[in-house]
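Long-time lurker. I teach an intro course on protein structure, and each term I like to show students one example going from raw sequence to a predicted 3D structure in token notation. This year I'd like something fresh instead of my usual example. Would anyone be willing to generate the tokens for the chain below so I can use it in lecture? Attribution to the forum is fine with me.
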Amino acid sequence: MLVISAKSGQLGNRLLLFANFIAFAIKNNYKVVNPAFEEYAEFFHSTERNFLCCYPPLAFPLPSNKRLRSYYYQFNCYLSNSGLFKKINIPRDKPFNWSNSYNICQQINPHAINFFQGWLFRDGWFIEDIANLRQYADTIRTYFRPLPKYQSNIANLISKIRHHSDVIIGVHIRQGDYQSHQDGRYFYTVKQYVKVMETVKKLFANKKVTFLICSNENQTPDNFQNLSYVYGNNHIIEDMYSLAECDYIIGPPSTYTMWASFYGEKPLYMIRDVNKSLTIQDFVQFDQWQGIFYANEDWSKNSWEWIH
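-- Reply from a regular --
Happy to contribute to a lecture. Here you go:
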């Protein structure tokens, strides 16, 4: 059994981490338990009534609530650090590969409980081995299907946009926490986002383009007056999965849009240069990214240069 006993970032990070563990578990006939998914379990049909947040899912529903899930996570943290069980720590100083990095497969005891800590898969671009994720993608997408109420809201939003659009471009305007993340490396002003949006619009000169804007900050309509746009529902799940329903996705480097790209099988452009003259080839599917990893003694400053 593999137990994810440490939290890694926010929603996008947790989804990618969990998904990669599930893929590895399917291939190698392991079970995965993820108490660290506690804050987000209530949003998905496979985890809402799955107190253990496990894969394969429980045969019978086992409902829970936020308080019990929190206690459950804390208990697993205690067990992980107790010295009574196998604990595998995974650093974040180089891209991860199940087969070659840190001898992970050799460390796993298939007949015992293995607690995992570290930032494994915290950032999708730190992964060299995504073959498992690609192979079991459909199973993973099914597991992380949102509850019907969220699906309904998403479907209504996208349907309204499609009614008057040829192409929908999802835009993730991430500000707020990105002012300090990596010293503001990927923090862009609204004017810079608009500049990129206008460049993207030119790629579809003869089509009606509508932008679906999802942001962690309130955005003033005046900034987008020269564009056709619709705001997302301002819900963490509905915005992410609405982006997955768009034809193309743009945004700064973020696992939020990476998951949308993976789940919806939609091409994504990660904004690294707001002055770049874009082509349609700059939009890349999740499993097609290539790049060079640059390590730093301060893991928060590790970087990845895309070369696709």
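Some talking points for your students: The CA atoms of residues 202 and 219 lie 23 Å apart. The chain has nine helices and twelve strands.
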